[in-house]
Write a structure and sequence with these properties.
The chain is an alpha/beta fold and 430 residues long. Helices cover 44% and strands 14% of the residues.
Length: 430
């Protein structure tokens, strides 16, 4: 399996080298002489938070260069595939679903942190994401712990309260949502695309029940996995219930929430900043738990997104050691830094000792006085841990070939999963 995947990475790299022009600007040069270089994406979140960490580290007496890099996953893959360490940063942010892919495809490229960090200080679903075999290579960072962001004023107008939709099953949520839609005329669960074109919503349900596309050995596991079957049975029921409100893109979804056209979004904690941008709606919003699938081990806790920080082996032991000390000091030991990241950037991070500060217990008047940070803190310790494996994006791409027929009723759950599993084995397990 790995050999086939490495070939696909190589093809991606050829395209990236010819189309992206690695090294053509300061943000793409890799290490600067005498500096520890960090690659991060998202100028509104990861970049400013990392810059805050750099400013606080040794009172700012350091030489650490934070570079904003768009399309970070492709550029990192390109640099690693080139075989030249000169093109690489010292520290890089990697999304959890892509971590094992990089670790297993480029063995020896990342610095082992197993004995450097106290991993019990992070929730297990996050430490599992930065681990390959028996060793840890990353420091967990932000959480995508999920919730239902919803308009409380609309819910109350329909005659319901927080207790009616919190800690419920999907069947219970659907019944209430249909009534809210009928009474208020709003769409319910907003999506940035039709459900047949995007796998994000299905992954929220999958993690909530503690399953993924692969078994513990990394083998595709769909047809015979009763939890996966339950997820897609539930997804079909949700779609058929009429409570989904799809849009053409994320901007249209945001507009629908802001205007009250849609009632709620089921997504990660990072969405808080988007909701808070609706300044005139302060006090109208709340967050409830994710509805659960009605199996014995279904939970009301899930995740959507999240990442960690990794150190690339520069070949210079001194650089490696300095990068380790910086990451360990700030991201696995500095409560004041995490408090600042929470208050200034709405960053729901996963370093558990930092969550004992008063900032995590503050009532948020925007969210109707709810202690939303406390909710996220409690919820992230209960998110089921899953094996993201090497091929999450590849499996999701295969699903997209069949989801339209599934949701239209042309394919049963078993037929859908059989086709996806067969296609995956043909492409990646020959």
């Amino acid at each position: 399996m790995k050999k086939r995947f490495l070939l696909s990475l190589g093809l991606i790299s050829v395209f990236a080298l010819s189309g992206c022009g690695l090294g053509s600007s300061d943000s793409e040069k890799g290490k600067s002489d005498g500096k520890i270089t960090v690659w991060a994406d998202d100028p509104n979140f990861n970049v400013p938070i990392m810059k805050t960490a750099v400013e606080m580290y040794k009172d700012g007496n350091n030489d650490i260069d934070v570079q904003e890099v768009s399309d970070l996953t492709t550029k990192l893959n390109t640099a690693l595939s080139s075989g030249s360490k000169a093109n690489l940063p010292n520290i890089v942010k990697i999304e959890d679903i892509n971590a094992k892919k990089f670790l297993e495809s480029y063995p020896g490229s990342f610095v082992k942190l197993t004995d450097q960090v106290e991993y019990d200080d992070f929730p297990s679903y996050k430490t599992n994401a930065v681990k390959d075999e028996n060793d840890y290579y990353g420091i967990p960072f932000d959480s995508g712990v999920a919730g239902v962001f919803y308009r409380n004023d609309i819910l109350e107008d329909a005659g319901y309260s927080f207790d009616d939709i919190n800690n419920v099953t999907w069947d219970e949520f659907i019944t209430i949502a249909q009534d809210v839609k009928e009474k208020t005329g709003t769409g319910i669960i907003t999506l940035s695309t039709p459900i047949s074109e995007d796998a994000n919503f299905q992954t929220v349900l999958m993690q909530s029940i503690g399953t993924w596309y692969f078994d513990s050995e990394g083998e595709i596991d769909l047809v015979d996995n009763k939890k996966v079957v339950a997820v897609f049975d539930e997804l079909k029921k949700i779609n058929d219930s009429g409570i989904l409100s799809p849009h053409s893109d994320a901007n249209e979804r945001t507009k629908a929430l802001q205007t009250g056209t849609d009632f709620c979004a089921v997504t990660g904690s990072w969405f808080t900043a988007t909701i808070k941008s609706f300044e005139d709606q302060s006090g109208d919003w709340m967050i409830s738990s994710v509805p659960r699938i009605g199996l014995e081990d279904g939970s009301n806790y899930s995740n959507h997104g999240g990442s960690g920080w990794y150190i690339l082996d520069s070949g210079n032991e001194g650089e490696n050691d300095e990068a380790v000390v910086f990451l360990k000091t700030m991201f696995a030991g500095n409560v004041d830094f995490y408090d600042k990241a929470l208050n200034e950037h709405a960053a729901v991070t996963t370093y558990l000792p930092a969550q004992s500060t008063s900032s995590w217990k503050t009532k948020d008047e925007f969210f109707s006085g709810e202690q939303i940070n406390s909710y996220f803190s409690d919820a992230m310790t209960q998110v089921p841990s899953v094996n993201y494996g090497l091929y999450t994006t590849e499996v999701q791409d295969i699903f997209k070939n069949y989801l339209k027929d599934f949701y239209s009723g042309k394919l049963t759950t078993t037929e859908l999963l059989s086709k996806v599993e067969e296609d995956f084995k043909n492409q990646f397990q020959q």
